[in-house]
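B., you asked whether I could sanity-check this one before it goes into the benchmark set. Here's the sequence:
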Amino acid sequence: MDFGGATFRGGTVDFFSATFSGGTVNFGGAEFSGGTVDFGGEFSGGTVDLSSPEDWSVPPSHLPPSAPGLLLPEGRSGVSD
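And here's what the prediction gave me:
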């Protein structure tokens, strides 16, 4: 699944009950600049790549600080509860 270049400026995108267990979910170049992008699902394999967003001024919520296959931007926390 590719969310590369997606813009999250308002509203809510909910991945709260998602299970990431295989394949790759790419958010490269995405803009997290407003609204709520809510992660809280299970990271048990595969790759969720959030390592190169265009904008991280309003990071997704409920991301664990680390999980199998979770790639966060270097030097940036994924936790914004």
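One thing to flag: The two ends are 25 Å apart (CA to CA). Otherwise nothing jumped out at me.
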